[in-house]
Phage tail assembly protein T
Amino acid sequence: MLRLSHEFKRADWRRMLSEMTATELADWLHFFNETPFTIQFIDHAFSGLNFTVASVFGGGKDLSPEDFSVLLRKPAVDMDDEIMMAVSEGIAGGIRYEPTNSGSND
């Protein structure tokens, strides 16, 4: 609803909601599901522009416009135990705690 009121340049979204019918609201939501909002449209345009500039000057073959988008975020990749142990070995100043039955001969 806030995006819809932003699109219509209205700060009073509650009043705007009270002035429209449920059918009208559903029609606008259906329309904006197919047509991007202004912020999404601007982000899409600038990510495409940044991708073009990076492709021309950088020549990266593995880039895509989604890499330059501010709004689109890739989901975090779950790391398995071996990767986390390898990463944690590089942390300086840390103390590593092991379970008591880890096989150490102390």
